[in-house]
Design brief:
Layout lengths: L4 H10 L2 H19 L8 H30 L1 E3 L10 H7 L13 H18 L7 E5 L8 E4 L4 E5 H4 L4 H26 L14 H12 L4 H29 L5 H5 L9
Parallel strand pairs: 2-4
Antiparallel strand pairs: 1-2, 3-4
Helix pairs in contact: 1-2, 1-3, 2-3, 4-5, 4-9, 5-7, 7-8, 7-9, 8-9
């Protein structure tokens, strides 16, 4: 289900959907001008005057929707300096909202805060000197949950998935946060030429891996480097999902860790 219809409309208006709305308004205006009762009485000059006015009105509406909808759909969340010592417990605490039943009660902006908190905690756990900025946007393909932009050190989360209710939707967002956080870790390895000194990452990072990271993020990315980088990120997020679920289950007093683990089934395959 959707978090709320108004938030969905804002998201559509603030993203690429503004172009679709503009096209729809233009089509309606054109149909009225061409087939309306007043159309036969319009001279060519009057017709083009009306058409220009309609175009200006559509442009103004689209601009307003983009301006006021942007607060939600291109929301930038910056991290404060010195977020605290790396702690797996902090990661689990940040992820609590994905498991404790409160996800469905949160608005899109609050869900964005939860997603950003997970990325922050995971970035600290991974020892990143430069944690990424999180942005929630509708400018991603419907099939893409999130992306990492190494040039700007930005994690983008698809707003469409923040609007979905249910444990499965929450699990997909959590998996995306962990996955994209690891891409930020790969970028940091590429930038400094080694594993960050304070990293608690359970996986070893070989010189070969760092070399591929450097080629992908700082050089010319190829299909092979992309497959290598993505495979590592998928492996990491799948591992961390299990660890986080186990810790969250203890925090919430769940006797059977599988009760929490079931909530993330299938997320790692997305």
């Amino acid at each position: 289900g959707l978090a709320s219809i108004p938030e969905l409309l804002l998201a559509i208006a603030g993203g690429n959907g503004a172009l679709l709305l503009a096209a729809a308004f233009a089509a309606v205006a054109a149909a009225w001008l061409l087939f309306g009762k007043t159309a036969p009485r319009l001279s060519a000059a009057a017709f083009w005057t009306c058409a220009c006015k309609a175009a200006l009105a559509v442009g103004a509406v689209a601009f307003a929707l983009q301006l006021f909808g942007g607060a939600l759909v291109e929301r930038r969340i910056d991290y404060p300096a010195g977020a605290g010592a790396p702690s797996s417990e902090a990661c689990a605490a940040a992820a609590g909202a994905f498991f404790d039943g409160t996800w469905d009660t949160l608005g899109v902006a609050e869900r964005a805060d939860v997603a950003a908190a997970v990325v922050l905690a995971e970035s600290s756990w991974l020892g990143l000197e430069h944690p990424p900025v999180v942005r929630v946007t509708t400018r991603l393909k419907p099939s893409v949950l999130g992306t990492y932009d190494g040039r700007g050190n930005v994690v983008r989360v698809n707003a469409a998935y923040l609007m979905l209710d249910g444990a499965g939707a929450a699990a997909n967002v959590l998996d995306t946060c962990l996955h994209e956080s690891f891409h930020a870790f790969q970028m940091e390895c590429a930038r400094i030429g080694a594993r960050p000194a304070n990293s608690k990452c359970p996986f070893s990072v070989t010189e070969e891996a760092v070399g591929v990271y450097r080629s992908h993020f700082l050089g010319a990315a190829t299909h092979n480097t992309r497959e290598f980088v993505e495979a590592h990120a998928r492996e990491y997020s799948a591992h961390r999902l299990g660890v986080v679920a186990s810790k969250v289950s203890r925090n919430l007093g769940i006797d059977d860790p599988m009760d929490a683990t079931r909530l993330i089934e299938g997320a790692a395959d997305m």
